[in-house]
């Protein structure tokens, strides 16, 4: 029997994945075009990991500069400023709000995201979503470790937990903890989710998917 559901956030609860892709592009738009395009491609190939990891890669591997916390902070702060207001006003993934409202007393809900933890908590409060979640976790934690800690702290067995995500990092987190996985289809994850058995186009289909597990 399913007792808990761990959700990624961007592209699973809110239609915010493209907002972040566009924000990464805006942050580096004043750099040479080839470097900016390489960075955006790197981001799209590594959806779901921390922005800090991505900006470090940009500094060290694309710009070929020595990394410093100050350099990374300038990029990350600019990114946060661009993203926050847009995320606060973007659409829900179809069915997400309804599912949370109708089922948060039936299942324990958690967030495991690549967004910094303080920022995701602010977003959830601002969007009146915090009340639905038993636990909210973001970076610097890694999703696979977050999932493992949720299992340990709440004494769930893996077969009692579903991870719902749209990125390869979500799939890896589920697999490494032997959790059920439900993938939200997007154009970006077609190849990564090719062998995923349980997939939905949006969260209007999630109830039927849970019942089938």
What this model shows, in words?
With 213 residues, the chain is an alpha/beta fold. It folds into two domains: 4-15 and 91-212, 3-Layer(aba) Sandwich (Rossmann fold); 17-89. Helix content is 48%, strand content 14%. It is built from nine helices and six strands; from the N terminus they run βαααααβαβαβαββα. It has helices spanning 17-27, 33-45, 51-62, 69-89, 96-103, 117-126, 143-154, 168-176, 206-212, and strands at residues 4-7, 108-116, 135-139, 161-165, 180-184, 199-200. Strands 3-2-1-4-5-6 form a six-stranded parallel beta sheet, sandwiched between helices. Helix 2 (33-45) crosses helix 3 (51-62) and helix 7 packs parallel to helix 8. It starts with a strand and ends with a helix. The mean pLDDT is 95.
Brief summary:
With 213 residues, the chain is of the alpha/beta class. It is 48% helix and 14% strand. It has a six-stranded parallel beta sheet, sandwiched between helices.
Mean pLDDT: 95
Helix and strand run? EHHHHHEHEHEHEEH
Name given to the CATH homologous superfamily of the largest domain: HAD superfamily/HAD-like
For the record, the CATH architecture of the largest domain stands as 3-Layer(aba) Sandwich
Percent of residues in helices: 40-55%
Strand order of the largest sheet: 3-2-1-4-5-6
Count of strand segments: 6
């Amino acid at each position: 029997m399913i007792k808990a559901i761990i959700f990624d956030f961007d592209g699973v609860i809110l239609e915010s994945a493209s907002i972040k892709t566009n924000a990464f592009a805006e942050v580096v738009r004043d750099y040479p075009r080839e470097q900016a395009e390489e960075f955006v491609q790197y981001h799209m190939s590594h959806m779901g990991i921390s922005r800090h990891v991505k900006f470090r890669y940009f500094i060290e591997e694309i710009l070929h500069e020595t990394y410093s916390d100050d350099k990374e902070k300038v990029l990350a702060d600019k990114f946060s400023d661009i993203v926050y207001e847009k995320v606060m006003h973007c659409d829900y993934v179809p069915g997400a709000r309804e599912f949370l409202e109708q089922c948060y007393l039936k299942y324990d809900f958690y967030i495991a995201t690549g967004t910094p933890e303080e920022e995701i908590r602010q977003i959830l409060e601002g969007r009146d979503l915090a009340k639905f979640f038993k636990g909210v976790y973001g970076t610097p934690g890694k999703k696979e470790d977050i999932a493992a800690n949720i299992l340990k702290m709440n004494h769930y067995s893996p077969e009692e937990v579903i991870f719902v995500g749209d990125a390869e990092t979500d799939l890896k987190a589920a697999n490494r903890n032997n959790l059920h996985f439900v993938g939200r289809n997007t154009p970006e994850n077609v190849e990564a989710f090719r062998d995923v058995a349980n997939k939905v186009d949006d969260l209007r289909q999630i109830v039927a998917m849970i019942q089938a597990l």
